[in-house]
Amino acid sequence: MKRNILIYALCALFALNFTSCKEEKTPLEERTEFLTGATKGWALTTATSSPAYLMSSGEYVSDLIGAGYLKDFEKDDLVIYRTTGAVDVNPGSVTDPEGYTTEKNIGQWKFLNDQATELSTQIPFFMDDVVEDVKILELTKNTLKFNYTHNAIDNPTKEVYTFTLTYTRK
To answer: What own/partner pairs with CB < 8 Å and gap ≥ 24 does 89-98 have?
Structure first.
């Protein structure tokens, strides 16, 4: 009798073990959850340029935020990636008196491959409506970091720049 109870207990333990296993998510599913999980949004924390970018002041800079590339009212903007594929921007507490003062849609996003290593999105940092393809360097629950290559035909240097933007989950 004790032997039967032991056998039943072991069978129950194995059955419980197999039913409690989580199904592994694909990189696309996992990264979609990370990207869209920041319901309050993603705050831009660093923006760098390689080579150094020629600012309108004539100065070459690598740290674009520190050099004043962003206006004060843009520094607390939050980018929100929705599960619907929408990209919204929340202007934060400091707003542009001539711009938007509430959350607004700025475009759409989508991953460009099954590994979710490339993203097509509008980048509010560049203050235009152009959809860019970016290479994701890091995407975790708390960090979104990507590279964008920009051919600066409008910049007097006519150089190709690589901008690296890092966002932190809020």
So the answer is: 89/124, 90/40, 90/41, 96/71
pTM: 0.81
| Domain 25-169 listed as CATH 2.60.120 | no
- Cβ atoms 123, 136 nearer than 8 A: no
Give Cα 16 distance to the centre of its chain: 38
161: β partners: 150
Q: Is the pLDDT of residue 90 over 70?
A: yes
How many C-beta atoms surround the C-beta of residue 30 within 10 A? 15
**Amino acid identity, position 69:** Y
Strands 60-63 and 86-90: unpaired
Buried b (16+ CB within 10 A) or exposed e, 57-85: eeeebeebbebebbeebbebbbbbbeeee
